[in-house]
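To whoever picks this up:

The nightly regression suite flagged Non-homologous end-joining DNA ligase as changed. Nothing in the input moved, so I suspect the structure step. Input below, exactly as stored in the fixture:
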Amino acid sequence: MAPNTEVEGRRLTLSNLEKVLYPDSGFTKGELLHYYATAAEALLPHLRGRPVSFLRFPDGPGGQRFFAKNVPPGTPSWVKTAEVPRSDGVSRQILVQDLPTLMWAANLVTEFHTPQWRADAPGRADRLVFDLDPGAPADIVQCCEVAGWLRERLARDGLDAYAKTSGSKGLHLLVPVVPTASERVSAYAKGLAREAEAALPGLVVHRMARNLRGGKVFVDHSQNSAAKTTAAAYTVRARVSPTVSAPVTWGEVEGCGSAGDLVFVAGDVVARLERDGDLLAGLLDVGRAGELP
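Regenerated output under the current build:
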């Protein structure tokens, strides 16, 4: 990919392509940009229409990291933005609607994070999320066990669940819902997290206190708050390796026997997309959205 290039009619300057972002693997910024360009067809539908927050790590995961929600200085005029209500007033955030915007944002070296609602309906969630976070010595194997319980419980309420790795230690469950006030979605998710703890007391904790998490899976329901965001599907994470928040099948969840079974780096995800397409496509199908009980 050339440093100065045209993407769908937009001129982009892509900088420092040879810069090594992940020293352990030698993964460069050019490889990061190539990954995003290759994964764009699957990634963009999960970003489109949602105000995006960036976790930037321009010098790689070992360098400085900072979370950015506001439109950064120097943003091209053709990048679409949206007004977003906040507790301290209205602000503007980026909308990643197309490939040129994705590549411009990826050149900043960023993780992509989105809320559970769309910019045209702030605070009305069209999906529910659980972030399953293991406390050592628990790992993603235990997260998968909890995910299976939650999937069955959600199904009893007529809700479909989809799974993806967090790209770190845990697992995300995503549920398409008919647009509903975030407060109601949050309350429902908290109730299910409590049920999971009651059903699996030796395995699950629903409270955030770290001293409760040892050897258990924290079922984090808080990201359903209108003010919170979750790492987007297919985003590369700022970890030791260029791991990706990768969609997985329920067969893979049920068959997970060790932490390494569900670790996917950028190259793995490209191969999976070629083989399987977007395993989260159902999340985007409004016909699959369920009503909360």
